[in-house]
Amino acid sequence: MLDLRAIIHDASADELAWDFWEDDPDVLRKCRDTVPGRIITAIEKMPHREGRDPIDVMGLLVAYTARRSLACWFVYCQSKTPLEAVALVVTFWLTSAQARESIDESMFIPCEPMSNGQRIVDCRRTDTIGASSAVAYAAKFTQTRSPIDAIHALSYSHMAYDTSPIGSIRIFERWLAECAWPSAFGLTAMSRVEQTAFADFVFPVEMQEALRENLW
Question: In the chain, pLDDT over 90 holds for what percent of residues?
Fold first, then answer.
């Protein structure tokens, strides 16, 4: 199994960022030269063993990280649409390839951050649109299987925590390497303990309810 902690450490030592300019004309190359780019590239190079397809591993990893990032969404937003969408994405990758049902393409578009019926346009937009974009790219990846979409999803999940008032970004990175990655690599569902591990904040009520009902 890849050592994600080492990959993150080495990429950070090389002063690589987690984000990149999405509209850069050279984005396909530059997004690879980032921390999430290093992670996804390493997974791409994994050999196919014991029925483990690197694409499935990528799909689960970005779904798990996108789901965790929604704690940042619910700080300000009330809509459960992103939570419902990411639940479908997780189910997609945990289902055998022959039995998978396509994800509706409407989920490939990030949910617009709204608070009490008003569109969020101030500084709160960065973390909320980051979380909803992570979900959208994770959903899109189910169709495209494009590593670039996986890189986008990881980048946006990290951006949500990096700009949110809740939680430490280092805690998120630790959880990614020590909890999300082993489950994704093993193509297994995350336990409730694993999903909430290391959190230095209280998960929103919406996520706690979904977790109790096994919908998260």
Answer: 87
Interval 136-182: pLDDT, tens:
999 999 999 999 999 999 999 999 999 999 989 999 999 999 999 99
Which is more confidently placed, 26 or 94? 94
Which residues lie below 8 Å from residue 154, measured CB to CB, with a gap of 6+? 18, 36, 39, 40, 61, 62, 65, 134
Task: Give, rounded to a whole angstrom, the gap between the first and last alpha carbons of the chain.
Answer: 26
Output the pTM of the full model: 0.94
Q: In degrees to the nearest 10, what's the CA dihedral of 63, 65, 210, 118? A: -100
What token pair was written down for 178? 């020590």
DSSP-assigned beta bridge partners for residue 52: 49
173 burial via Cβ count (<10 Å: 0-12, 13-18, 19+):
buried
